[in-house]
Protein 1
Amino acid sequence: MTGASARTIATAAGVNQALIFYHYGTVDDLLAAACVTTTRSRVARYADRFAAVTTLRELLDVGRALHAEELAEGNVSMLAQLLAAAQTGHKLAGPTGEALQLWTAEIEAVLHRLLADSPFSEFADIPGLARAIAAAFVGLELYEGVDPAGADQALSALSQLAVLVELVDELGPLATRVLRSRLKRATRPT
């Protein structure tokens, strides 16, 4: 990561840099531990909000609030640097992936709950969808730095999809059976 040396970290923390090596071994090991520990704390801070989500639009609202907070705290640029460093630094790849998985697990739990009675539940790969949402969120966080209007437009498009899913879920029993039948035919292996 740019500017992440034992000296700069120790100076910012107000400690002797030897403590970094004593407790963590390397700067990468310190960054890895900080990444996972900080993410656990952030996920815990949002757990109640995730648990209260009752629609896909509410999930998107939580994502927007989380994004605004992460941006204001400088975590978006930190995430970008960790992701870039993880591409070549194997010590950071595992912990960065572990941290992202903490968010993905929260999203997946919400999706299982929201889609349980939906016609989509039989056909949606919910763990895969949770990963796609997490990846899109990370991508939009990074994208917003170069095209804020485009990122907002992308989030608005996701809101439109959420409305569509909600409308499908409100169909009557006959329309739901027809939709399930068509989804089965459309997803049948050829």
Protein 2
Amino acid sequence: MNAAKQERLPQLDIYRALAILGVLHVHSSSFAAGELALNSPYYYWLNWINIFFKFGTPSFIFLSSFVLFYNYYGRPVTRSLIGSFYRRRLKYILLPYLLASICYYALTLYAKGLLTQHPGESLSSFLGALFTGSAYAHLYFVFISIQFYLLFPLLLKLLQSSRFWVRWAFPLGLALQWVFILWNKVQLHIVEKGSLAISYLAYYMLGAYIAVHFEQIKLWLMKPWRELAVRHKVWAILLVTLWLGAAFTHVQLWYRARHFGIWTDSLWYELLWNVHTMLSALVLLYATFVIYRRAPRMIVAILTRLGEISFAVYLVHPLLLAVYRRFGTDVGTDSLIYVFYIYGGLAVALAGSWIMVQFAFRHIRSSWIALGNVPRSLSVQVPDKPVITGRNRTIEGNDISKS
């Protein structure tokens, strides 16, 4: 088995940047897309933002799997490899998850005036939230990633054992995911099923399949459009067309439900979300390589930096968004200003968390405890190193945002 170090893929930082922008759009529009702005003349647009950008978290899940299998598939599964794998996850993922869960749960209790009341019940409730990824709304993503890490060595060994398992990884993952969805609908009735990794198994297996076959796929990703074979152009056009069709159908379905109260079977929402976000993960992968190849260097540098710190931004941004909503201006939902108010929350969450995270990484040596792995360009050991352009980054680094 070839254990050579894989080629660097600096493009993936751009992928992470696009994914975190998707997450920020969804979170910043979540209140408005509910009942709060239901009668706003701009509700269609607010709902559109909230549904169209739901690709963020599933894309991170896909990328996490892709990076892990890309880095580890050609390496023998040894005790040393597994030990190193879990040490990094314990240090850069599990520890930040624990601290974020404590902080967000304590802040929630404080906001409700319950922080010092019934400490025994609060502790018990917190432990339940910790082990279900529900200490705060966004932490489920880290929790399901931890579940995947527990299974990863077994899945890696399975895919290494036979090309049969590689060939059928995605179809089997998709089938198992939907067996669980149907089982849950009919019998289990788990409300927080989104906190279980099996709900995203198809994304993990799609990432694994593409990672194993990346030598063939990257020929399509790396070449300019004019140099692509006709069949590759057809596949690219078909992918984008299907993606747009699924995305806008998904948006419309939720608009009819939320605005007019015309609801349909829950499986249709599940199916359209699945198709929309899975195609989004592939479109983002293609777009990432196009942006890296064609965009101005400044844009590449900005997106690269955002991608580098995306995990830390993911952890921090809900705090700033909550503060913005609590102390923000009371704007009527029937005004166009309300749309700008929603985007103001996005801007505050993005810029504020970016500034906080970058400052912590540059000046606080132990910032990795709360924010995960520190990018080399922001390490306190090299404070004077200039901002990178994104052209020479490695694929290694922080999990979820990097692996």
Protein 3
Amino acid sequence: MTKILLATVAIFAFSAPSFAQTPTTTGQAPPSFYLAQDTASMKCQIVETQPVAGGSMKVVGAAHLTKASAEAALKADKTCK
């Protein structure tokens, strides 16, 4: 009986670390800048969060990694007033 008990304790002792939860995130996502156009006034602005679908703002173009590249895209875009 004691041999079975010792074997069970040994199995649990060696298998316990495999049940530990590992973290799923390794860091933060890089900041993104979006050109958002107001559908009513057709004016654009630079925002850091992507506008939700169906709202009064829509995304123009793709996300930019830096604010400088977003500003350059805003100046170059012809649909923005």
Protein 4
Amino acid sequence: MPEAPLIRAWRPPVDGVVEVLHAHFGDHAYPMHAHDAWTVLLVDDGAVRYDLDRHEHGAFHGQVTILPPHVPHNGTAANASGFRKRVLYLESSQLPARLVGASVDNPAVVDRALQQLVSAVHRLARTPGDEPAADAPLALALERLRARLGDHPGAPPPSGGVARDLRDLLEANVVSGVPLRTAAAELHFAPAHLVRAFGRAFGMSPHQYLISRRVDLARRLILAGEPLPAVAVQSGFYDQPHLVRHFKRILGVSPGVYARSRP
């Protein structure tokens, strides 16, 4: 009897990601089909044989495979052991349409740094409360993908005070947060440029800065006697476990221990 596929699929609150799919397939064969999104595929085990634009290709561990929207493809395991894969489906606007041809010609990218960035997006997208942190590796991954597909940007615009401007924007939205693409539109810089400029200026990502400020706010609320569930909500965390995880990571003690330290 054929082994049933194991699938987990969801739409995370990550700007530009329409679906995440983690799956283990045995003998299932995808027929020819198409998506309205860019498909960014990691194969973690096994291999996939597929046809794209009437040409045969393979997807293997160590590659990042990029399939363009509206171009039909199929897929099946290259051997009897099946395959495990992780897939990001990205809004068609996340990469320019002019790169469709390049991705059809060369869908397989061997780039360890790119693979690590895409893996980071997957890791953060499946952790409740940490999904907004995926904005930064996604922006850097998209920039790297564009370059690997031959879309080389010109010299980066001067950063000037953009890192400080982004910090001010984050400070004005500590609890609610600001999606990276929203910040980029407001400050008129590419998302990847914002991430790099902020990292150079402050030694951390914009989301790491935001989390540190939320922990700072949580400390004040705890010392004011607020109960921990209320502290989590009022300081911008997803829930109390999300607060506890980051509070302990930054301060070395849990919020409960911190609360009990009050004289």
